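Example 4.3 (complexes with small molecules)
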Amino acid sequence: MLNASSQKIMIWNSLQSETLKELDKDMRDRVLLILRDRIQENIVSKVRSLKDYEEALIRSRESTQTLAVESYCKDCNTYVCALVDIMEYLDAISFPTDESIRKICPTCSNNSLIIPKIPP
Ligand SMILES: [Zn+2]
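Answer. The structure with zinc ion bound is encoded below.
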């Protein structure tokens, strides 16, 4: 069971993600940039490799739709910095389960890359 505070975070996140989809593109891009900065600031304090993460941060600036994350491949047993779609990420963190976000690992091509859910 989720505790009261994580339930509140979930409700807030899902409202936020629904509201975002209704905004016009310019406004949505601006809000996404603010959310992205907040999420990335939270991630940067937890990363294993600051150098790799900084490189991913630079690549994420090329589009307002991408978020730089540090993920873990449980098959390769290694940390991988990757770019994910920020709307997909916001949807995933608002989804009411403890399940992690999974992606295809660029090294082993298995669906074994685990992306931690870190709210803005
Ligand atoms: Zn892998």
